[in-house]
Design brief:
The chain has four helices and seven strands. The protein has about 150 residues and is α+β, with helices and mostly antiparallel strands.
């Protein structure tokens, strides 16, 4: 049975999952990893969701304010052995609900075109491609999405 909790970036399970995510991204991002990694500090994340199956943390996600009406989805990850089980979808739905409860109208995010599964996942969850924003404008590997809540 899956259990979803709300927490913050000081949660030890979140920190461990982010370490696994960073190890994965170091491989897929290649030479660009240092650039992307500078924008992924978890210390600024006060809205974190963790998924547990049988008491074990198997996935995470977070958001931070982007502007007055939007949040930016960050640090989405599920363990390899639980992919395809709906964990990421439950995490994303929980983040969207939380953002909506706080009065935000939309979510934005950036992912890499090399993360093909992530791109398909966001499209499946009704995220629409948008112009690259902020630090990602000139990054060939970046793709940005938005979803109205």
């Amino acid at each position: 049975m899956m259990n979803i909790i709300r927490t913050n970036s000081e949660n030890k399970d979140f920190i461990q999952l982010v370490e696994a995510l960073d190890a994965y991204l170091k491989i897929t991002d290649g030479d660009e990893h240092a650039f992307y990694n500078q924008f992924n500090s978890i210390s600024v994340l006060n809205h974190v969701v963790l998924a547990y199956i049988d008491g074990t943390a198997v996935g995470c996600g977070a958001f931070k304010p982007f502007d007055n009406s939007s949040v930016e989805i960050k640090r989405m990850y599920t363990t390899p052995e639980t992919r395809g089980m709906g964990v990421a979808s439950e995490i994303l739905k929980s983040l969207e609900l939380w953002a909506s409860e706080l009065g935000y109208a939309s979510c934005v995010l950036e992912t890499g075109i090399r993360q093909k599964e992530a791109v398909q996942f966001y499209k499946k969850n009704n995220y629409k491609s948008i112009e690259k924003y902020g630090q990602y404008v000139n990054m060939d590997n970046s793709v940005c999405f938005k979803k109205e809540l």
